[in-house]
Amino acid sequence: MSEKVMELSNGILKSILTDALVERPTKASFDEMTQSGVYSIGPENVKSGYPATIFEYGILIVAVAELFMAQIYIPHNWMAGQHLLAFRVAYNGNFNKWIVLPQSSVIIQS
């Protein structure tokens, strides 16, 4: 690979990854957090849109590519009966329902 191609590739990847890893201001609803980045989640600032039976403190990672968006919610903790992780996708602003992974989906915990 030529040096010019390498520089161009690095520039593209840097802009994509930098945008995706930026901490964004939290909104009142999961539906409003639609810009690529990482959001701090807690019941004191997020009032609606939580996945069912999941710990209310965590982080939301959002990735956007034109009309497609993915949201991944990772709670800081979980208790018996709560889910470990939730994700959903949207196309052209229309969200699918949350998909949640139960604690029983853990194969190895160390």
Task: Describe the overall structure.
- By secondary structure, the chain is of the alpha+beta class.
- The chain has one helix and six strands; from the N terminus they run H-E-E-E-E-E-E.
- The chain has one helix at residues 3-20, and strands spanning 37-41, 58-65, 68-75, 83-91, 94-95, 99-102.
- Strands 1, 2, 3, 4, 5 and 6 form a six-stranded antiparallel sheet that branches.
- It is elongated.
What can be said about this structure in brief?
The protein is α+β, with helices and mostly antiparallel strands. Helix content is 16%, strand content 33%.
Percentage of residues assigned to helices: 10-25%
User: What's the N-to-C terminus distance?
Assistant: 41 Å
Supply the helix-strand structural class: alpha+beta
Number of helices: 1
Largest β-sheet summary: 6 strands, antiparallel
What is the element string, with H for helices and E for strands? HEEEEEE
3D shape: elongated
Uncertain runs with pLDDT below 50, 5 residues or more? none
- Quaternary state reads single chain
Proportion in β-strands: 25-35%
Number of strands: 6
Average of pLDDT: 82
Radius of gyration from the alpha-carbon trace, in angstroms: 16 Å
